[in-house]
């Protein structure tokens, strides 16, 4: 796959025209092959880019401008429709290539299973890494109706891959009884319902560590983000998620990459979900793209 040339479609606002000169690379993972409720997140990456054109380029949250970060929008990986395993293999191959070139990867989903191959690529380069997971759902199932490749399984697989003690979940308010029991017994960190305040308490213990961050847009209450495949009542506000992103930006954590997943534009004609997602990506760019650790 070759994604180091200018993308022919819409790009995220202020995308740099040169891959080689960029510190970070935005790439899309348009996959929703394993969803258990409403499909459509494969259209999320493209629409997040399109609505980003309405953003201000300056962030008052961390006092930075998008001109201060060089990032290249590589477009979407051309994933084969309906083929989960091949799609995951292609994502891992692409992220591995970005890491080899010293780029900071910013992924746009797509369903949450797309984070699994990213974890696999990341741990090969950073074996002592941790994961911060912000989501409404535990995603700790071993399988869904007998299928291990499911959007409900990536965090359980992350626990197996990294060690459960290196996985930190926030905002969780949905899952099976077995998933919550696993969280208690495994040694992973799980904060139910809230994000910003429990995250702020944990960040000092992650200081100096290399951390990958995955955000599922459904951590927001459906009142703030109806455009997602598995909406879950009782969530946080956009303001609270921005507070969490800013807290991470101001911490001593060494962020090595991130993704934002599960935006499904068809279910939000007001576009508040897509607009919020693009703002979160702006803040992730400005707060998290720093000199890469070796």
What does it look like?
The protein has 294 residues and is of the alpha/beta class. Helices cover 31% and strands 18% of the residues. It has eight helices and ten strands. The longest helix has 17 residues. It is globular, with a radius of gyration of 17 Å.
Summarize the structure.
Belongs to the arginase family. Agmatinase subfamily. It is built from eight helices and ten strands.
List the helices and strands and how they pair.
Elements: E1 24-29, H1 44-52, E2 58-59, E3 64-65, E4 71-76, H2 84-100, E5 104-109, H3 115-125, E6 130-134, H4 154-162, E7 167-172, H5 177-186, E8 189-192, H6 196-202, E9 210-216, H7 238-249, E10 254-261, H8 272-288
Parallel strand pairs: 1-4, 1-5, 5-10, 6-7, 6-9, 7-8, 9-10
Antiparallel strand pairs: 2-3
Helix pairs in contact: 1-8, 2-3, 3-4, 6-7, 7-8
């Amino acid at each position: 796959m070759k994604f180091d040339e200018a993308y022919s479609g819409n790009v995220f606002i202020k995308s740099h025209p040169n891959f080689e000169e960029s510190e970070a690379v935005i790439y899309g993972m348009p996959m929703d092959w394993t969803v258990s409720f409403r499909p459509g997140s494969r259209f999320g990456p493209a629409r997040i880019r399109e609505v980003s054109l309405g953003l201000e380029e300056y962030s008052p949250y961390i006092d930075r401008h998008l001109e201060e970060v060089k990032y290249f929008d590589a477009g979407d990986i051309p994933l084969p429709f309906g083929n989960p395993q091949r799609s995951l293999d292609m994502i891992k191959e692409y992220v591995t290539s970005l890491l080899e070139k010293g780029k900071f990867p910013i992924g746009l989903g797509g369903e949450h299973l797309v984070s699994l191959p990213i974890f696999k690529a990341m741990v090969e380069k950073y074996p002592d890494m941790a994961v911060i997971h912000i989501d409404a759902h535990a995603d700790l199932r071993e399988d869904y109706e007998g299928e291990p490749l499911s959007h409900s399984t990536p965090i359980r697989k992350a626990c197996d891959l990294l060690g459960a003690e290196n996985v930190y979940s926030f905002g969780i308010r949905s899952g099976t009884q077995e998933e919550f029991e696993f969280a208690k017994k495994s040694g992973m960190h799980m904060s139910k319902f809230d994000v910003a305040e429990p995250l702020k308490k944990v960040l000092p213990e992650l200081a100096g560590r290399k951390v990958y961050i995955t955000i599922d847009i459904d951590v927001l209450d459906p009142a703030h983000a109806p455009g997602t495949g598995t909406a879950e009542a009782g969530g946080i506000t956009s303001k609270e998620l921005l507070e969490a992103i800013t807290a991470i930006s101001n911490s001593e954590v060494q962020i090595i990459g991130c993704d934002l997943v599960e935006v499904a534009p068809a279910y939000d004609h007001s576009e508040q979900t897509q607009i919020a997602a693009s703002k979160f990506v702006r803040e992730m760019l400005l707060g998290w793209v720093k000199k890469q650790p070796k």
